[in-house]
Amino acid sequence: MKNQNTKPTKKKIVMYYLILAACLVVIASVTVGIVFAVRNRNADNFIDNDTQQPDDGNNPGGDNNPDDGNEDEDDNKPTDAAYVFVSPVADIDLLQSHVFGYDKTLDRYRLHCGIDLKAAAGTDVVAAVDGTVKEVSVSDPLFGAVIRIEHADGVETVYKFITPVEGLKAGDKVSRGQVIAKVATATGVENADGDHLHFEVYKNNAVQDPADYLDAISK
Fold this sequence. Notes:
The protein is of the alpha+beta class. It has one helix spanning 10-51; strands at residues 94-96, 100-103, 108-111, 115-118, 124-126, 131-140, 144-150, 155-164, 173-174, 179-183, 196-203, 206-208.
């Protein structure tokens, strides 16, 4: 009896490869279909979420999302009506703006961080808005005495070239318009400008232009 040849024929081998290739094509097609389905579903969700944003008419470009990530010029200002600043001195006489300019005392150009309000020595200085006293310094070699007050929304006000009222200390609560100091005789790094209050505003530790908070000052 002759032994039968158990080796696969060439025809069978070709058939096996064709079947394997067909399986791979099917698997690839299914995978691609799943990927596209997931991507389309995510895109549809994104479009649905985007179009659900209210259109307040402030986006002339047609974007329905009113928050485009750009801050408006007034974003740093307080928005609460009760949080409006009052002038720290009764009469606003702007001596120096928040600008880069010439310093007569130091005889050089520098950024003037704040504004100077001309006022005679002894003039009352009031808190610009409600807050908590953070610092009272009476021996600053450059600015004489300094009062720093913390307010809401990360805002701080600073008062320099002053004489604090007796007993004022860190931790004290002060109200808008409350007398916290008197204007002192000109001294320190701005003595050539005469008697005045140096007033600064900070927002989240970044210096601001106080004129943006004091509407009585026209820029």
